[in-house]
């Protein structure tokens, strides 16, 4: 390999100069031997220097693929590469991917490439949309270990779950941190659709509050209780049941109500208004192409209880489908 032979004391400065001039060959490692270093340069490099140009044997650099498509270039056609969905969810040591129908026969190759690229233990393919009262998704293992239980780390917390028994989105991590940062000391908080408890756990880990967390999925509550123990928390009460029924035994008003059930949360706004304390906050989520529909729904529900809402904040959390967003609206409820 064509290299510049440089005294060790000049190695770093010479390397920087060669890199600045784009003359250094980045596919090989620098070699040191006795009092000299050997810096690989491009074979077509034509330049003058005060050091000897020599041919030496150098170790090739390990090249890591930039994306999954690069790993699959020999297994998929250019058209199939275009159709490949390169985004995926990483939940602990599990990867969840979406594969277009026309590529399902290549799912094994895609799974193995995803496993190699992410360095995780298992790859599952989405087989359905989120469905049912308990909000789960059908999955199929396509690479790695058949173990759907994992521990996901988020903002200093650990969240244990079974991806086949509960729904969890790592893409809401920033939103959960944002809500947690907005919480005030000693708030009483109700999470109406808590799942395995990512909102309650992140909030409780970072704030002195009391949280009531409700979900209709018994497996979600099972993992929430495990997550409470795992994170050594004492300020979350986990309740399994339909919030419509559970609410009959909730004998207090809440300073904050979290309503992250974007497809159906609007159906529970009337109930949320009855449970919100004066000047309390509702963190409301829905799927929409704008904020207008959600704001109107909040205002309508408040009016039924002779209350008003002040919209504090609106934002797009993530894309849910072309033209549609998982939107968030923070509303203060005023009696």
From TrEMBL:
Gene3D superfamilies: 3.30.70.2580, Met-10+ protein-like domains, Vaccinia Virus protein VP39
SUPFAM superfamilies recorded: S-adenosyl-L-methionine-dependent methyltransferases
TM segment ranges: none
Alphabetically ordered keywords of this record: Cytoplasm, Methyltransferase, S-adenosyl-L-methionine, Transferase, tRNA processing
Domain of life: Archaea
Record's keyword annotation contains Cytoplasm: yes
Known catalytic reactions: guanosine(37) in tRNA + S-adenosyl-L-methionine = N(1)-methylguanosine(37) in tRNA + S-adenosyl-L-homocysteine + H(+)
Pfam families in the cross-refs: TRM5-TYW2_MTfase (PF02475), Trm5_N (PF18093), TYW2_N_2 (PF25133)
CDD domains referenced in this protein's UniProt entry, alphabetically: AdoMet_MTases
UniProt entry tagged with the keyword Phosphoprotein: no
Domain SAM-dependent methyltransferase TRM5/TYW2-type: 88-335
InterPro entries, per the entry: MeTrfase_TRM5/TYW2 (IPR030382), SAM-dependent_MTases_sf (IPR029063), TRM5-TYW2-like_MTfase (IPR056743), TRM5/TYW2-like_N (IPR056744), Trm5a/b_N (IPR040601)
Cellular-component GO terms for this entry: cytoplasm
GO molecular function terms attached to this record: tRNA (guanine(37)-N1)-methyltransferase activity
GO annotation (BP), single: tRNA N1-guanine methylation
Enzyme Commission number, as recorded: 2.1.1.228
Alphabetized PANTHER family for the sequence: TRNA (GUANINE(37)-N1)-METHYLTRANSFERASE, TRNA METHYLTRANSFERASE
Protein name per the record: tRNA (guanine(37)-N(1))-methyltransferase
Organism: Methanobrevibacter smithii DSM 2374
